[in-house]
Write a structure and sequence with these properties.
seven-stranded parallel sheet, alpha/beta, 7 helices, about 15% strand, Rossmann fold, about 260 residues, binds nicotinamide-adenine-dinucleotide
């Protein structure tokens, strides 16, 4: 028996990385999960790895309003209800503002921020019936300014603020809406840094826990927030970053006497 037995969930961007770990954890907790991504092949590969008859996949580009609406309608049609939606899919456009193309700005805005709006608007009528929950995967890049990824930083900041604003109203209806801010987590999205060992070393040096996080360490926070153990949590922004955002940024190796 899992903590989330009999629940029905949607996870966006569930074929790889953190999203895949979330799908797996929700299945392990007893939930039925419809997850999405842009490629049927990657969806089929993820389904094969998961090996669960409670998992389903649907090709969806979360930047497209109609596709997100079809995803939510598909879950309700198949499961008969919706209890949990995890807005996880995102992309990071690495470009300083003066070098940022308008096209990449608009595309990343649509994937990272518009998608949360589309999914929330379509899901809320169903979540009202189940007293369900929305969990948005934001980032610590949305808490502090991220020099190398200004668009991503701003979009994640917007996701955090949308989370709070929606949570404040919908709490009275029993819908809980929270966000998670991961720090550096090892996923396909961060694999590119392995080719930059000096950068990677100094990055990890700056993490108080002295290591990157694993996707399962975010999935476990999702399982908690989705469960009744988090029943009084509305609009919480939960950080899981190995201590990065707790730091003042001052060096820790000071002489102590
Ligand atoms: N990895 C990290 O260090 C880290 C840190 C902070 C926050 N996050 C956040 O965690 C979430 C997952 O990140 P990750 O590292 O696992 O990324 P990832 O790139 O490994 O996985 C992202 C998933 O989203 C999917 N996706 C991307 N664009 C999509 C679209 N338009 N429509 C549908 N699916 C789409 C991808 O196919 C993939 O399955 C993201 O919201 C990311 O911003 C990650």
């Amino acid at each position: 028996m899992g903590r989330l037995d009999g629940k029905a969930a949607i996870v966006t961007g569930g074929t790889d990385g953190i999203g895949y770990a979330i799908v797996k954890r929700l299945l392990d907790e007893g939930t039925s999960v419809l997850f999405c991504g842009r490629s049927q092949d990657r969806g089929d590969a993820a389904l094969a790895r998961l090996g669960s008859d409670r998992a389903r996949f649907m090709v969806t580009d979360v930047a497209e309003e109609a596709e997100v609406e079809a995803l939510i309608a598909g879950a309700v049609e198949h499961f008969g209800k919706l209890d949990i939606i995890v807005n996880n899919a995102a992309v990071a456009a690495v470009a300083l503002i003066e070098e940022h193309s308008t096209e990449a700005w608009r595309r990343s805005n649509a994937v990272n921020y518009d998608s949360v709006f589309f999914a929330s608007r379509a899901a809320i009528p169903h979540l009202r019936k189940t007293k369900g929950t929305i969990i948005n995967i934001a980032s610590i890049s949305g808490l502090g300014g991220e020099g190398a990824y200004p668009s991503y930083s701003a979009q994640k900041g917007a996701v955090i603020q949308l989370t709070r604003a929606m949570a404040v109203y919908h709490a009275r209806e029993g819908i809980r809406i929270n966000a998670i801010c991961p720090g550096f987590i090892e996923t396909p999205a961060t694999d590119a840094f392995k080719a930059l060992p000096d950068l990677l070393e100094s990055w990890i040096e700056g993490i108080p826990a002295q290591r990157p996080g694993q996707p399962e360490e975010i999935a476990s926070v999702v399982a908690f927030l989705a469960s009744d153990d988090a029943s009084f949590m509305h609009g919480s922004i939960v950080v899981a970053d190995g201590g990065v955002s707790a730091s003042s940024g001052q060096p820790t190796q000071v002489p102590l006497g």
